[in-house]
Amino acid sequence: MGNIAVYVVVVLVGALVTLVANRPARTISLRVGYVAQPDIRKVHQKVTPYGGGAAMLVGFCVALVVAVSIPSLRSVITSSHEMLGVLLATGVIFVVGVVDDFREMSAPGKVAGQVLAATILYFSGCTMYQLKLPFAGFVVLGPSILPVITAVWVFALSNAVNLIDGLDGLAGGIVAIASGTLCVYGLRLEDLGLLPVTNVGPLIAALTCGISLGFLRDNFHPAKLFMGDAGALMLGLLMSASTMVIGGRTPPASGVTFFFFAPLLIPVFILGVPLIDAVWAFVRRTASGQGFHTPDKNHIHHRLMRLGHGHRRTVIILWLWTALLCGFVLFPLFDTRVNVFIPFGVAVLLIGLFTWFNPLVNRLLRGDVSETAEDKVTK
Q1: pLDDT, tens digit, for every residue of 244-303?
Q2: Is the preceding omega at residue 24 within 30 degrees of 0, hence cis?
Q3: In the chain, which stretches have pLDDT less than 50?
Q4: Rounded to whole angstroms, how far apart are CA atoms 359 and 355?
Q5: Which of 174, 261, 274, 359 has the CA that lies 20 to 30 A from 209?
């Protein structure tokens, strides 16, 4: 990956500018009352300013300007209207998030804003063209279904990131790891001739990784700044855009990696933690008769904290899970011999998750079970 250096420059610029912008964003947020108030469904115990989304947006724009000044990246940006569409869609979903942070938009209004951002991506060409489904084979997406799939994809990833944003540094760290992985993945596919060098996906992923890293400095526990819905929805949109133009344009029969069901499995693994949490939340709230956007304290990170892990340890555990899942995606691209171990590794992960979150195991770890099966037998 000879051109990886220019992408590292983009990551560093995005991180540095976002880091510098955090302080004025915090000051302005406090001055205008753009703050998160503590309540019973939130973990933080004090008034904390939003504004992290604005700092990341500034970092994104400045890093993009720097990317335009680099000849090898200028050709990537100017080869299509996709990056312009990403910029406009990012602005739209940022505004939706700011409004929601201030006055808590209704669920239909929030979804409408996400659909509008997805529509901009679609008309700019920043979307997937094809995918391979189990038992269905290779499917070329037609113009009648493509807008719907694009909207669903944006909705799913945006809300997944938003739902996981419940602990200091959690969402930012997960997105930084996932987007960095996706950038390397896309560049490796370019080296293998499976993606054109003008594919905009790795650049979007590099920008996303940079602004997430820059934000983490002031967001790690105890956080001085929150990203709010403005930042979470923006990161989710950027991740959806990069996964669509990388995973949704990979040839159907590369034979290089186990993840030949792109884009079905690649983003599921890279963003495994927030996606699992989002699906879990949907099932849980639907079963209890609640709306999907009804907040609660039963997310994965809440469960880990109830198991006795502290705030920072919970975040680091979920970062490590994300890094492990990302390793399943990257290793086969560099050594195809790893493919044979992936199904076994996935099985181990699933068994571990089931055991860890099993209600009986949780009660045993908390000491809530007064009688074990062995005690009953001896009576």
Answers
A1: 998 887 765 445 555 544 445 666 676 666 666 666 666 655 666 665 555 555 556 556
A2: no
A3: 253-254, 260-263, 359-360, 369-379
A4: 9
A5: 261
Q: The tokens of 98 are what? A: 């700011």
Which residue is associated with the tokens 């076994």?
Answer: 344
pLDDT of residue 16: 97
pLDDT confidence of residue 220: 87
Amino acid, single-letter form, for residue 359: P
Would you give the distance in Å from CA 134 to the centre of its chain? 24
Q: In this predicted structure, what is the pLDDT of residue 229?
A: 93
Radius of gyration over alpha carbons of the chain, in Å?
A: 21
- Rounded Cα distance between 333 and 314, Å, is 30
Q: Quick one: which of 302, 323, 292, 329 has its CA closest to 155?
A: 292
The answer for residues whose C-beta is within 8 angstroms of residue 186's C-beta and 6 or more apart is 195, 199, 201, 202, 205, 242, 246
Where b means 16+ CB within 10 Å and e means fewer, 263-275 reads: bebbbbbbbbbbb
DSSP-based three-state secondary structure for 137: strand
Number of DSSP helices (H) and strands (E) in the chain, helices first: 16, 4
131 strand-pairing partners: 139
3-state secondary structure 11-34: HHHHHHHHHHHHHHHHHHHHHHCC
**The predicted structure's pLDDT at residue 372:** 41
The predicted pLDDT at position 376 comes to: 38
Cα–Cα distances in angstroms (integers) from residue 106 to residues 101, 111, 113, 291, in the given order: 12, 9, 11, 11
For tokens 């880990």, what's the residue?
A: 304
CA 164 to mean position of chain CA atoms: 9
Q: What is the pLDDT of residue 379?
A: 37
Q: What are phi and psi of 133, to 5 degrees?
A: -110, 145
Residue 8 makes CB contacts below 8 A (sequence gap 6+) with: 206
Residues in the chain: 379
Question: By C-alpha distance, which of 226, 236, 237, 183 is closest to 55?
Answer: 226
Alpha helices in 104-165 (DSSP H): 107-124, 146-164
pLDDT given for residue 90 in this prediction: 97
pLDDT at 369: 46
